[in-house]
Write a structure and sequence with these properties.
Strand content: 15-25%
Number of helices: 2
Radius of gyration: 22 Å
Oligomer: single chain
Largest sheet: 3 strands, antiparallel
Strand order of the largest sheet: 1-2-3
Structural class: alpha+beta
Length: 73
């Protein structure tokens, strides 16, 4: 069975290795060996790339807009 790792390792032209989080897609560490990436990978706490929590728009009182008057913003 194939499982997906939490981190993708990419080798650069200068032979360094990037550790990329497969959840948030951020490069979290760069090193010369995989062993150099372990601490950063263990400490990384990713936030979703697209938050699932919907934000509610501010109320009219918060924005200072006048309700019921057209043409004024």
């Amino acid at each position: 069975m194939l499982t997906m790792s939490k981190f993708f390792h990419r080798t650069n032209a200068n032979c360094t290795i990037d550790s990329v989080c497969t959840c948030c897609f951020r490069t979290i560490a760069v090193g010369n060996t995989l062993d150099e990436l372990v601490d950063a990978e263990n400490e990384h706490h990713s936030e979703p790339l697209f938050p699932t929590e919907k934000k509610t728009p501010p109320s009219q009182e918060d924005t200072g807009k006048l309700g019921g008057v057209k043409g004024f913003f």
